[in-house]
Write a structure and sequence with these properties.
Chain lengths: 84, 267
Protein backbone atom coordinates (compact mmCIF):
# COMPACT_ATOMS: atom_id res chain seq x y z
CA UNK A 1 0.00 0.00 0.00
CA UNK A 2 1.78 3.24 -1.07
CA UNK A 3 2.01 6.30 1.14
CA UNK A 4 -0.53 8.38 -0.81
CA UNK A 5 -3.13 5.55 -0.55
CA UNK A 6 -2.43 5.18 3.16
CA UNK A 7 -3.03 8.90 3.68
CA UNK A 8 -6.32 8.75 1.81
CA UNK A 9 -7.49 5.79 3.87
CA UNK A 10 -6.46 7.50 7.06
CA UNK A 11 -8.22 10.71 6.01
CA UNK A 12 -11.44 8.79 5.45
CA UNK A 13 -11.01 7.15 8.82
CA UNK A 14 -10.40 10.60 10.32
CA UNK A 15 -6.88 9.86 11.46
CA UNK A 16 -3.50 10.88 10.17
CA UNK A 17 -0.56 8.50 10.11
CA UNK A 18 2.46 10.17 11.62
CA UNK A 19 6.09 9.23 11.21
CA UNK A 20 9.02 9.97 13.47
CA UNK A 21 12.02 11.80 12.12
CA UNK A 22 15.07 13.42 13.71
CA UNK A 23 15.13 17.20 13.23
CA UNK A 24 18.45 18.69 14.31
CA UNK A 25 18.91 15.80 16.73
CA UNK A 26 15.44 16.20 18.22
CA UNK A 27 12.53 13.83 17.68
CA UNK A 28 9.76 15.22 15.54
CA UNK A 29 6.47 13.70 14.37
CA UNK A 30 5.27 14.68 10.92
CA UNK A 31 2.41 13.43 8.74
CA UNK A 32 3.23 10.57 6.40
CA UNK A 33 4.13 11.78 2.94
CA UNK A 34 5.40 15.16 4.12
CA UNK A 35 8.00 16.76 1.95
CA UNK A 36 11.04 18.51 3.34
CA UNK A 37 9.50 21.81 2.25
CA UNK A 38 6.24 20.95 4.12
CA UNK A 39 8.15 20.45 7.37
CA UNK A 40 10.32 23.56 6.91
CA UNK A 41 7.16 25.61 6.46
CA UNK A 42 5.49 23.88 9.38
CA UNK A 43 8.51 24.81 11.54
CA UNK A 44 8.00 28.46 10.49
CA UNK A 45 11.52 29.03 9.28
CA UNK A 46 12.08 32.75 8.87
CA UNK A 47 15.82 32.73 8.34
CA UNK A 48 16.79 32.29 4.69
CA UNK A 49 20.44 31.47 5.28
CA UNK A 50 20.45 27.78 5.97
CA UNK A 51 21.18 24.48 4.25
CA UNK A 52 19.78 20.99 4.77
CA UNK A 53 21.11 17.45 4.74
CA UNK A 54 18.92 14.33 4.95
CA UNK A 55 20.69 11.22 6.21
CA UNK A 56 24.04 13.01 5.74
CA UNK A 57 23.28 13.80 2.10
CA UNK A 58 23.10 17.43 1.03
CA UNK A 59 19.69 18.40 -0.33
CA UNK A 60 19.66 21.36 -2.65
CA UNK A 61 17.03 24.05 -2.09
CA UNK A 62 15.64 23.38 -5.56
CA UNK A 63 14.43 19.89 -4.56
CA UNK A 64 13.00 20.52 -1.09
CA UNK A 65 9.45 20.08 -2.37
CA UNK A 66 10.29 16.86 -4.16
CA UNK A 67 12.06 15.30 -1.17
CA UNK A 68 9.54 13.12 0.64
CA UNK A 69 10.56 12.19 4.17
CA UNK A 70 10.44 8.64 5.50
CA UNK A 71 10.24 7.31 9.03
CA UNK A 72 13.63 7.46 10.71
CA UNK A 73 15.07 10.12 8.40
CA UNK A 74 17.71 12.31 10.03
CA UNK A 75 17.50 15.94 8.99
CA UNK A 76 20.28 18.40 9.78
CA UNK A 77 19.79 22.12 9.21
CA UNK A 78 22.81 24.37 9.53
CA UNK A 79 23.37 28.11 9.55
CA UNK A 80 26.40 30.41 9.37
CA UNK A 81 28.40 30.78 12.55
CA UNK A 82 31.83 31.89 13.74
CA UNK A 83 34.69 29.64 12.69
CA UNK A 84 38.47 29.43 12.63
CA UNK B 1 48.59 42.06 -4.28
CA UNK B 2 48.47 38.35 -4.87
CA UNK B 3 46.24 35.76 -6.50
CA UNK B 4 44.41 33.49 -4.08
CA UNK B 5 42.20 30.88 -5.76
CA UNK B 6 41.34 33.23 -8.60
CA UNK B 7 40.75 36.31 -6.47
CA UNK B 8 43.20 39.20 -6.17
CA UNK B 9 43.71 40.07 -2.51
CA UNK B 10 45.99 42.57 -0.81
CA UNK B 11 46.60 41.08 2.62
CA UNK B 12 48.46 37.85 3.28
CA UNK B 13 46.79 37.52 6.65
CA UNK B 14 43.65 35.38 6.81
CA UNK B 15 41.60 35.67 9.98
CA UNK B 16 39.25 33.34 11.82
CA UNK B 17 36.05 34.63 13.40
CA UNK B 18 35.69 32.27 16.39
CA UNK B 19 36.03 32.80 20.15
CA UNK B 20 35.89 36.59 20.27
CA UNK B 21 34.45 38.15 23.40
CA UNK B 22 31.75 39.86 21.31
CA UNK B 23 30.66 40.49 17.75
CA UNK B 24 31.75 44.12 18.10
CA UNK B 25 35.27 43.10 19.08
CA UNK B 26 35.39 40.65 16.18
CA UNK B 27 34.43 43.42 13.75
CA UNK B 28 37.08 45.76 15.20
CA UNK B 29 39.70 43.03 14.91
CA UNK B 30 38.82 42.33 11.29
CA UNK B 31 39.17 46.03 10.46
CA UNK B 32 42.50 46.31 12.33
CA UNK B 33 43.90 43.21 10.69
CA UNK B 34 43.35 44.67 7.20
CA UNK B 35 42.51 41.12 6.13
CA UNK B 36 40.61 40.36 2.95
CA UNK B 37 39.69 36.77 3.90
CA UNK B 38 37.80 35.54 6.95
CA UNK B 39 36.82 32.01 7.88
CA UNK B 40 33.34 30.98 8.98
CA UNK B 41 31.63 27.75 9.86
CA UNK B 42 28.23 26.03 9.97
CA UNK B 43 26.28 24.85 12.96
CA UNK B 44 22.98 23.18 13.68
CA UNK B 45 20.85 25.79 15.28
CA UNK B 46 17.28 26.62 15.94
CA UNK B 47 16.66 28.62 12.80
CA UNK B 48 13.78 30.43 14.38
CA UNK B 49 16.53 32.21 16.33
CA UNK B 50 17.23 35.41 14.42
CA UNK B 51 20.50 36.06 16.34
CA UNK B 52 22.37 33.83 13.94
CA UNK B 53 21.08 35.72 10.97
CA UNK B 54 22.43 38.85 12.68
CA UNK B 55 25.95 37.35 12.74
CA UNK B 56 25.84 36.64 9.02
CA UNK B 57 24.38 40.07 8.24
CA UNK B 58 27.30 41.69 10.13
CA UNK B 59 29.90 39.47 8.45
CA UNK B 60 28.62 40.33 4.97
CA UNK B 61 29.14 44.05 5.67
CA UNK B 62 32.87 43.48 6.34
CA UNK B 63 33.40 43.16 2.60
CA UNK B 64 35.81 40.25 2.98
CA UNK B 65 36.03 37.04 0.98
CA UNK B 66 34.46 34.28 3.04
CA UNK B 67 36.24 30.94 3.48
CA UNK B 68 33.83 28.42 5.04
CA UNK B 69 35.33 25.47 6.91
CA UNK B 70 34.21 21.88 7.48
CA UNK B 71 34.93 21.95 11.20
CA UNK B 72 33.63 18.95 13.13
CA UNK B 73 33.87 16.55 10.20
CA UNK B 74 35.63 13.25 10.71
CA UNK B 75 35.08 11.48 7.43
CA UNK B 76 35.33 12.42 3.78
CA UNK B 77 31.58 11.92 3.41
CA UNK B 78 30.77 14.34 6.24
CA UNK B 79 33.23 16.91 4.87
CA UNK B 80 31.77 16.70 1.35
CA UNK B 81 28.24 17.18 2.66
CA UNK B 82 29.37 20.14 4.78
CA UNK B 83 31.14 21.66 1.77
CA UNK B 84 28.01 21.39 -0.38
CA UNK B 85 25.92 23.00 2.36
CA UNK B 86 28.50 25.79 2.71
CA UNK B 87 28.50 26.41 -1.03
CA UNK B 88 24.73 26.85 -1.02
CA UNK B 89 24.66 29.23 1.94
CA UNK B 90 27.77 31.32 1.26
CA UNK B 91 27.63 31.14 -2.54
CA UNK B 92 31.33 30.45 -2.86
CA UNK B 93 33.31 27.54 -4.20
CA UNK B 94 36.03 28.12 -1.60
CA UNK B 95 36.20 25.53 1.16
CA UNK B 96 38.66 25.11 4.01
CA UNK B 97 38.75 21.34 4.24
CA UNK B 98 39.10 19.99 7.76
CA UNK B 99 38.78 16.27 8.40
CA UNK B 100 39.86 15.62 11.94
CA UNK B 101 41.47 12.34 12.94
CA UNK B 102 42.14 12.81 16.65
CA UNK B 103 40.10 14.66 19.28
CA UNK B 104 43.13 15.60 21.39
CA UNK B 105 45.61 16.82 18.80
CA UNK B 106 42.92 17.86 16.27
CA UNK B 107 45.30 16.72 13.56
CA UNK B 108 43.78 15.79 10.24
CA UNK B 109 43.03 12.24 9.18
CA UNK B 110 45.35 12.16 6.16
CA UNK B 111 43.52 9.36 4.34
CA UNK B 112 40.04 10.85 4.62
CA UNK B 113 41.51 14.28 3.85
CA UNK B 114 43.01 13.17 0.53
CA UNK B 115 39.83 11.25 -0.34
CA UNK B 116 37.65 14.28 0.37
CA UNK B 117 39.99 16.66 -1.48
CA UNK B 118 39.94 14.48 -4.59
CA UNK B 119 36.15 14.42 -4.72
CA UNK B 120 35.68 18.09 -3.90
CA UNK B 121 38.14 19.19 -6.59
CA UNK B 122 36.13 17.13 -9.12
CA UNK B 123 32.95 18.84 -7.87
CA UNK B 124 34.44 22.24 -8.71
CA UNK B 125 35.47 23.42 -5.26
CA UNK B 126 38.56 25.51 -4.58
CA UNK B 127 39.93 23.35 -1.79
CA UNK B 128 42.07 24.80 1.00
CA UNK B 129 43.07 21.62 2.87
CA UNK B 130 44.16 21.94 6.49
CA UNK B 131 47.01 19.42 6.70
CA UNK B 132 50.18 18.62 8.62
CA UNK B 133 53.71 19.46 7.49
CA UNK B 134 54.19 15.92 6.13
CA UNK B 135 55.72 16.21 2.66
CA UNK B 136 54.18 13.01 1.30
CA UNK B 137 50.68 13.98 2.46
CA UNK B 138 51.13 17.38 0.82
CA UNK B 139 52.28 15.75 -2.39
CA UNK B 140 49.19 13.50 -2.41
CA UNK B 141 46.96 16.54 -1.93
CA UNK B 142 48.64 18.26 -4.87
CA UNK B 143 48.16 15.11 -6.96
CA UNK B 144 44.49 15.17 -5.92
CA UNK B 145 44.22 18.58 -7.57
CA UNK B 146 44.85 21.02 -4.72
CA UNK B 147 46.59 24.26 -5.74
CA UNK B 148 46.62 25.49 -2.15
CA UNK B 149 47.87 23.76 1.00
CA UNK B 150 47.48 24.87 4.58
CA UNK B 151 49.96 22.99 6.78
CA UNK B 152 49.82 23.54 10.51
CA UNK B 153 52.55 25.24 12.50
CA UNK B 154 51.37 23.45 15.66
CA UNK B 155 48.08 22.00 16.95
CA UNK B 156 45.02 24.22 16.60
CA UNK B 157 44.76 26.75 19.40
CA UNK B 158 48.08 25.76 21.01
CA UNK B 159 49.88 29.02 20.25
CA UNK B 160 53.18 27.16 20.09
CA UNK B 161 54.38 28.62 16.81
CA UNK B 162 56.38 26.71 14.20
CA UNK B 163 57.32 23.47 16.00
CA UNK B 164 58.90 21.98 12.87
CA UNK B 165 60.27 24.84 10.76
CA UNK B 166 62.58 22.47 8.90
CA UNK B 167 59.65 20.51 7.52
CA UNK B 168 57.85 23.69 6.56
CA UNK B 169 61.00 24.92 4.82
CA UNK B 170 61.14 21.63 2.92
CA UNK B 171 57.55 22.07 1.78
CA UNK B 172 58.38 25.53 0.45
CA UNK B 173 61.41 24.25 -1.45
CA UNK B 174 59.78 21.11 -2.85
CA UNK B 175 56.37 22.59 -3.69
CA UNK B 176 57.47 25.87 -5.20
CA UNK B 177 54.41 26.26 -7.43
CA UNK B 178 51.83 25.62 -4.72
CA UNK B 179 50.22 28.35 -2.64
CA UNK B 180 51.26 27.60 0.94
CA UNK B 181 49.46 29.15 3.89
CA UNK B 182 50.45 28.29 7.45
CA UNK B 183 47.26 27.53 9.36
CA UNK B 184 46.91 26.68 13.09
CA UNK B 185 49.21 26.94 16.06
CA UNK B 186 50.31 30.55 15.61
CA UNK B 187 50.48 32.38 18.94
CA UNK B 188 52.61 35.49 18.51
CA UNK B 189 53.35 37.91 15.70
CA UNK B 190 56.96 36.65 15.68
CA UNK B 191 55.60 33.23 14.62
CA UNK B 192 53.86 34.85 11.68
CA UNK B 193 57.06 36.68 10.74
CA UNK B 194 58.95 33.39 10.82
CA UNK B 195 56.43 31.68 8.56
CA UNK B 196 56.51 34.50 6.05
CA UNK B 197 60.32 34.67 6.11
CA UNK B 198 60.34 31.01 5.06
CA UNK B 199 58.53 32.09 1.92
CA UNK B 200 55.02 31.02 2.79
CA UNK B 201 52.34 32.88 0.88
CA UNK B 202 50.12 33.66 3.87
CA UNK B 203 49.15 32.92 7.42
CA UNK B 204 45.74 32.00 8.78
CA UNK B 205 45.16 32.43 12.49
CA UNK B 206 42.30 32.85 14.95
CA UNK B 207 43.06 32.18 18.64
CA UNK B 208 46.20 34.32 18.62
CA UNK B 209 43.97 37.35 18.04
CA UNK B 210 40.64 36.35 19.61
CA UNK B 211 42.18 35.15 22.89
CA UNK B 212 44.56 38.08 23.31
CA UNK B 213 43.87 40.82 25.85
CA UNK B 214 43.19 43.41 23.14
CA UNK B 215 42.14 41.59 19.95
CA UNK B 216 41.94 44.65 17.70
CA UNK B 217 45.46 45.74 18.69
CA UNK B 218 46.79 42.22 18.29
CA UNK B 219 45.18 41.97 14.87
CA UNK B 220 47.05 45.12 13.83
CA UNK B 221 50.28 43.60 15.18
CA UNK B 222 49.75 40.50 13.09
CA UNK B 223 49.01 42.57 10.01
CA UNK B 224 52.37 44.32 10.42
CA UNK B 225 54.13 41.03 11.22
CA UNK B 226 52.88 39.29 8.09
CA UNK B 227 53.86 42.30 6.03
CA UNK B 228 57.33 42.50 7.61
CA UNK B 229 58.01 38.81 7.06
CA UNK B 230 56.97 39.01 3.44
CA UNK B 231 59.06 42.12 2.77
CA UNK B 232 62.05 40.40 4.36
CA UNK B 233 61.58 37.29 2.22
CA UNK B 234 61.31 39.36 -0.95
CA UNK B 235 64.33 41.49 0.05
CA UNK B 236 66.53 38.39 0.37
CA UNK B 237 67.93 37.82 3.87
CA UNK B 238 71.61 37.37 4.64
CA UNK B 239 72.97 33.86 5.08
CA UNK B 240 73.63 32.56 8.58
CA UNK B 241 77.33 32.11 9.46
CA UNK B 242 79.13 29.96 12.00
CA UNK B 243 81.86 32.56 12.61
CA UNK B 244 81.95 36.22 13.48
CA UNK B 245 82.37 38.79 10.74
CA UNK B 246 82.84 42.40 11.84
CA UNK B 247 80.38 44.75 10.27
CA UNK B 248 82.82 47.68 10.66
CA UNK B 249 86.01 47.13 8.55
CA UNK B 250 88.87 47.01 11.07
CA UNK B 251 91.80 47.77 8.74
CA UNK B 252 93.56 50.96 9.86
CA UNK B 253 91.25 51.56 12.76
CA UNK B 254 92.93 52.87 15.88
CA UNK B 255 95.28 50.25 17.37
CA UNK B 256 94.83 47.90 14.37
CA UNK B 257 97.94 45.93 13.63
CA UNK B 258 98.73 43.41 10.90
CA UNK B 259 98.84 40.72 13.59
CA UNK B 260 95.11 41.33 14.25
CA UNK B 261 94.01 39.81 10.89
CA UNK B 262 91.00 37.52 11.31
CA UNK B 263 92.02 34.13 9.82
CA UNK B 264 88.54 33.49 8.39
CA UNK B 265 87.70 36.92 6.99
CA UNK B 266 91.17 38.28 6.29
CA UNK B 267 90.24 41.57 7.94
Amino acid sequence: MDQKWKRQVSAIMGEEIMINIKWNDKNLEVPTGSSLLDVLMQQEIKNQFYAVAVNQNFISRAVYAATILKAGDVIDIVMPMQGG
Amino acid sequence: MWNLAGKIVKSRLLLGTAQYPSLEILIDAVHSSRTNVITVSLRRESIQNSANNFFWECIKKLNCHVLPNTAGCRTAREAITAAEMAREIFETSWIKLEVIGDEYTLQPDPFELVNAAKQLVKMGFDVFPYCTEDLVLCQRLVEAGCDILMPWAAPIGSGKGLINPYALETLRKRLSDVTLIVDAGIGKPSHAVQAMELGFDGVLLNSAVSLSIHPAQMAAAFADAVNAGRLAYEAGMMEERNFAQPSTPLIDTLFWRTSCVNPSSGQ
